[in-house]
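TASK: fixed-backbone design
INPUT:
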């Protein structure tokens, strides 16, 4: 039975990268992947629960390297959101996961958003004294301008909350583009489609690379069912193009791939298997 991925750290060179588990979704698979079929899912029973629902993890990452402590995406927050026809997406564990690392919120120097869907920026602020306060009060905040401009000023329920995310960050966000080295050894990679300004991150350390892929992928079966785009893709064709273009990098030797939404394990390796690809989780 698949489960939400748990908090876990890996070490690569002088970098510690931790998945900060927040919760997950229990979702109708045919709704989440509109191109999928009941017959197609029979090849992937390991991704479905006993009632045939798809299990998807929700969380973010923490990168620790020298003086830099970097949060990448921030979960969905302490809430349950039920999208009609899909199922519930819930969070609440993010701060407990952060506490397991021993890192205090005030020590986080930077926050990088791969994109601004609600399940990636939900802990940007939290309730305090009848208002809201930044979870990471001392951090710089990074996002692409394309992404910020796409969402800012709107109230799309799938996007950043107008009062809890947009207003608190509007004077703080700094803009990045694909190809920018945001911090030493952390480079933005343009992967648009899921949202217009979506990026992935490449971390170079100790002769190895780690790709934090954001929402380029959502389920391991997409490596074989390559036309199964997720319903929340703003541009499904462009999202698939970004996936296909990235595979050449993700399959390189000495490359670890991290995927926010995979069940059970978010760290692994991707290898070519005939015309398709295979996911192998990192050993515990």
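OUTPUT:
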């Amino acid at each position: 039975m698949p489960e939400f991925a748990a908090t876990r750290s890996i070490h690569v060179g002088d970098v510690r990268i931790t998945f900060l588990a927040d919760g997950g979704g229990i979702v109708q698979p045919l709704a989440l992947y509109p191109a999928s079929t009941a017959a197609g899912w029979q090849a992937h029973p390991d991704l479905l629960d006993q009632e045939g629902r798809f299990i998807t993890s929700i969380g973010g990452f923490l990168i620790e390297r020298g003086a830099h402590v970097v949060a990448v995406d921030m979960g969905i927050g302490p809430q349950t959101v039920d999208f009609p026809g899909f199922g519930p997406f819930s969070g609440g564990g993010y701060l407990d996961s952060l506490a397991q690392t021993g890192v205090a919120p005030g020590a986080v120097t930077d926050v990088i958003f791969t994109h601004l869907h609600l399940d990636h920026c939900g802990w940007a602020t939290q309730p305090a004294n009848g208002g809201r306060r930044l979870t990471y009060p001392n951090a710089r905040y990074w996002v692409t301008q394309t992404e910020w401009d796409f969402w800012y000023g709107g109230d799309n329920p799938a996007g950043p909350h107008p009062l809890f995310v947009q207003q608190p960050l509007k004077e703080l966000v700094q803009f990045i583009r694909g190809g920018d080295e945001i911090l030493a050894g952390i480079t933005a990679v343009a992967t648009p489609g899921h949202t217009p300004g979506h990026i992935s991150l490449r971390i170079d350390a100790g002769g190895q690379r780690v790709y934090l892929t954001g929402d380029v992928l959502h389920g391991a079966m997409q490596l074989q069912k390559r036309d199964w785009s997720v319903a929340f893709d703003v541009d499904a064709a462009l999202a698939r193009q970004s996936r296909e273009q990235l595979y050449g990098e993700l399959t390189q030797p000495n490359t670890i791939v991290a995927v926010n939404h995979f069940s059970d394990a978010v760290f692994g390796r991707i290898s070519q298997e005939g015309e398709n690809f295979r996911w192998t989780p990192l050993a515990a």
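COMMENT: The mean pLDDT is 97.
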